[in-house]
């Protein structure tokens, strides 16, 4: 769906994007993570032919960009940096104007297309109100409606939840999951780990212009081979396990033990058979944050792990 090789953008001596090999596959919800200033927007703009690459190649929907933009862009829905709209006009009129200005899409079916797009983003009831009366979340959804006018095969979204409150973020998330379930491939940039962890199945991490991670979320957060045990009898458990060669207690924090053991089921049986009460026993998994920190290392502008609500009110 999107494939780049050696994609690079220089601004003077700054390599804003540095030899990036993106691989976004059909059916992905791909999260493109990176701190502010890491080069996400520049990459997204290059994918859409809005900024020319210094070097490297780009394929979108199997066609070279920007050369094939006239055939590719009508099949791609895009939302970049706070969608612009005429404030005094209604959402519906804004969409109709965008539809008329965009490539493809006949005039005869415009009304239906606009109505369908408004319906999809949950703005059908307020489509006739002027945009100046819309909340930030409604404006963001209007931007998404514009991206949906052509029933895109691929959605490219730059920080789609920036500036939204938790409710707005959830609405966008549900909308994207719904579109994905209908077959749309989604590529979205974000600086929020939690957002990507909740929504995406494939992740790329940009660190100062370089793609330092690209993998399935499930592979990045795979089990560590350790088991987390919650027990009201931690001392008993530690004493028991000290005599078991294949088990090693690697961490103890109150009633929580982290045990290196090859088989959680066998470990559980061992503990219970000896009278240790087990409240919970789960495979320890690496968090996406751990995976990102391991790849970016110290001194990097780390992507944020803060709750999305803390970002509410940021620039749209
Ligand atoms: N037109 C430009 N001229 C010079 N430098 C630029 C230009 N556009 C972007 N940059 C620089 O390139 C780097 C990457 O910027 P970019 O906007 O792509 O990052 P980003 O990850 O999208 O960050 P943000 O989330 O803040 O938008 C930054 O250091 C930025 O200052």
UniProtKB/TrEMBL annotation:
Region called Disordered, residue ranges: 295-316
A GO molecular function held by the record: ATP binding
InterPro entries listed in its UniProt record: AAA+_ATPase, ABC_transporter-like_ATP-bd, ABC_transporter-like_CS, P-loop_NTPase
Keyword Phosphoprotein found: no
Superkingdom classification of source: Bacteria
Keyword tags: ATP-binding, Nucleotide-binding, Transport
Domain ABC transporter: 2-233
Pfam families in UniProt: ABC_tran (PF00005)
Family: Belongs to the ABC transporter superfamily.
Protein name, UniProt field: ABC transporter ATP-binding protein
Native source organism of the sequence: Rhodococcus antarcticus
Taxon lineage: Bacteria, Bacillati, Actinomycetota, Actinomycetes, Mycobacteriales
């Amino acid at each position: 769906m999107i494939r780049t090789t050696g994609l690079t953008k220089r601004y003077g001596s700054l390599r804003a994007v540095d030899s990036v090999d993106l691989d976004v596959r059909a059916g992905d919800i791909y999260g493109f993570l990176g701190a502010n200033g890491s080069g996400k927007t520049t990459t997204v703009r290059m994918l859409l032919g809005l900024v020319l690459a210094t070097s490297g190649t780009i394929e979108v929907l199997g066609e070279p960009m920007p050369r094939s933009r006239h055939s590719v862009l009508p099949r791609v829905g895009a939302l970049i940096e706070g969608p612009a709209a005429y404030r005094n006009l209604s959402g519906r009129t804004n969409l109709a104007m965008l539809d008329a200005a965009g490539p493809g899409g006949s005039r005869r079916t415009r009304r239906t297309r606009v109505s369908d797009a408004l319906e999809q983003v949950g703005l059908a009831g307020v489509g006739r109100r002027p945009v100046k009366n819309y909340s930030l979340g409604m404006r963001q959804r209007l931007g998404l409606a514009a991206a949906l006018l052509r029933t895109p095969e691929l959605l490219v979204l730059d920080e789609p939840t920036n500036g939204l409150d938790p409710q707005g973020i959830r609405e966008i998330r549900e909308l994207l999951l719904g579109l994905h379930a209908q077959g749309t491939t989604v590529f979205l940039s974000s600086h929020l780990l939690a957002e990507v962890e909740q929504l995406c199945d494939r992740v790329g991490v940009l660190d100062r212009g370089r793609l330092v991670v690209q993998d399935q979320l499930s592979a990045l957060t795979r089990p560590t081979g350790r088991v987390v045990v919650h027990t009201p009898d931690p001392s008993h458990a530690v004493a028991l396990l000290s005599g078991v060669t294949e088990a090693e207690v690697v961490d103890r924090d109150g009633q929580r033990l982290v045990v290196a053991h090859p088989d959680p089921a066998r470990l559980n049986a061992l503990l219970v058979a000896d009278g240790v009460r087990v409240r919970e026993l789960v495979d320890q998994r690496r968090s996406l944050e751990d995976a990102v920190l391991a790849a970016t290392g110290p001194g990097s502008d780390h992507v944020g792990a803060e709750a999305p609500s803390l970002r509410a009110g940021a620039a749209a």
